[in-house]
Amino acid sequence: MAEPRKPRIALMGEFSAGKSTLSNLLLGSRPLPEKVTATRLSPVWMSYGTQAPYREAMDGSTEPVSLDALEDIPVDETRVIRLFLDADILDVIDLIDFPGISDPNMASTVWERVLPEVDAVIWCTHATQAWRQSEAAVWETMPEPVREHSILLITRYDKLTTDKDRRRVFKRVRRETDGQFGGTFPISLLQALEAGDDYDKWDGSGAGPFVDHLLETIQKLSTLAARSPQPLYNITGDNAVPEPAAPPVAPRRVTRMIDPDQPKRSRPPSRPSEDLNKS
């Protein structure tokens, strides 16, 4: 009998909204070579493992690819790029990094064709121009089961220099997205990456509340994924999978991140990856 599939969480948003930095934060390291721009690629699907990377063509065939030559992969002929990494978070979920939704140099069909694989989304919106009309238009097309398990991050929150501006932006975004996300969190992703083991800086960046909520979401999604092979994007109406009556017990490897009293590993991960593994 095949093992239950892992939940699939997409990283989405407009160009330069912080998706690459978020990916680094969740994984504990940079998944792509420094010179590679993820926004110019087909969706990058990341799973746990040591397999060589490959691309899946539009006809379902696969072809090995080199990490040093990812930008040479033909976007229009590639449905998705598959990467396999030894990252703790990927032990419990798959991450799919989408290109920017409003890139004028990339047709929306490049990422739209991968949406049916998604259970939930972490959407990044830049604080200085948060929740643009183009973002709202795309989000309106998302099925309700995906929305209710998704997270909205107001990134680069430190770019808002006054408390008044921060309150104003957060209040407006919450009002305009009311009921459309499972949680909304302001965050400075760069500050979170730089926090290391400094818990005050970690929480001050906004990463603490976000990660706590993400871990709860992963627990719920893991239970739902175990009940159905279909991603939530494809489950609506009479086919909906019921929510678990109570949060499931998180895998030990994941829970290790949140409890600071748990013993450290011989090769401790960075603070961000460490926390996400305790979900």
Q: What can you see in these coordinates?
A:
With 279 residues, the chain is of the alpha/beta class. The chain has a single domain, classed as 3-Layer(aba) Sandwich (Rossmann fold). The protein has helices at 19-27, 109-112, 133-139, 144-147, 163-176, 189-195, 199-204, 207-227, 252-255, 271-276; strands spanning 8-13, 44-48, 54-57, 62-64, 78-85, 94-97, 120-126, 151-155, 183-186. It has a nine-stranded mixed beta sheet with strand order 4-3-5-2-6-1-7-8-9. Strand 3 and strand 4 form a beta hairpin. The chain starts with 7 loop residues before the first strand and ends with a helix. Mean pLDDT is 84; it is low at 245-279. Residues 230-279 are annotated as: Disordered.
- Give the total of domains: 1
Distance between the termini: 25 Å
Largest sheet: 9 strands, mixed
Care to count the β-strands? Answer: 9
Please specify the SSE layout and strand pairing.
Layout: E1 8-13, H1 19-27, E2 44-48, E3 54-57, E4 62-64, E5 78-85, E6 94-97, H2 109-112, E7 120-126, H3 133-139, H4 144-147, E8 151-155, H5 163-176, E9 183-186, H6 189-195, H7 199-204, H8 207-227, H9 252-255, H10 271-276
Jot down its keywords.
279 residues, alpha/beta, Rossmann fold, P-loop_NTPase, Dynamin family protein, Dynamin_N
What is this entry, summarized?
This is Dynamin family protein. With 279 residues, this protein is an alpha/beta fold. It has ten helices and nine strands.
